[in-house]
Amino acid sequence: MRLWRTKKKRLLIIVGCVLVVGLVSCNRDIKYSVTVVNYGEHGVIVHEIPTDYIPSIKGQLGPGVPGVRADFMYLGSFRGYPDSLPDTVTIEWQLAELTECKEIISRKSYEYQTTDTKLYSRKSGCTWTPLPEKRFTKVFDMKAVRASEDAKHSGDWMGFGRKRIMRITFIFRDEQLDVRVSSFTSNFFK
Question: Contact 96/43 with Cβ under 8 angstroms?
């Protein structure tokens, strides 16, 4: 009789664990991070991007080189959507002429396996002159982002305290603005 109780307890514990794991994995919150980069020739002044993070440099984004991690500006999540995505995202930006730069470094892209042969200029310490005729607004429909494989797998546990996070990157190229979706693995222990 005692053996039966022990087996019954073990069975109940196993069933309980399976239910808890099942409930946790059914939670389909989207874990994501919003970043912006500037791969254009001009400086970019971001007037509106609906994120919780307010850049310490007042929305100024200098030109950078693809694949250089320091050229990314991390903006957290969309305002009011910490674990999901809004239907649309509206971004307003203005170009600025950059003169008297203290440092200009020109390089090809550092992105892995790229065939891009363009030279990009990373500029810093410049004088910013906003161009009034170069102010733009673009609205992004987030349905495609929400339906991406990166979104479907965001929040998945990768083992050893690591979780899969979707990265939504808005890429400024002067008058053009695109969005790219990718993933990275977070480390719970850091």
Answer: yes
